[in-house]
Amino acid sequence: MKFSVPAIAETIAELPHGCCVIDCGCFGWRLADACTAHDQRLIGLDRVEPPGRPAGAEFARMEGPLLDVPDDSGDLVVASHVMEHLATLFRSLPSSYASRFPTDFYG
Length: 107
Known about the structure:
Layout: H1 5-14, E1 20-24, H2 32-37, E2 41-46, E3 58-63, E4 66-67, E5 76-78, H3 87-100, E6 105-106
Parallel strand pairs: 1-2, 1-5, 2-3, 5-6
Antiparallel strand pairs: 3-4
């Protein structure tokens, strides 16, 4: 299933205020405006921090199955532009994502 940025922005708008959105593969910080507009916390998750981090956004590093975010910290995980880069992460999904992001996983 393919999700467009407007559909993701609508999903972010429907979250209760103060939820944490994790943008897995955050290059470009595309979800920052939607998170800011709806009072959501944004954590960009990637191997290298991209330039131009928006005010209020956070960054966490990922390297294969290692994710630098605490368990249960994400209410919504968006991985819309990274699936082709995540062969090693797919092998570790049950042990990594299932425990850290129990609510939703969009990809």
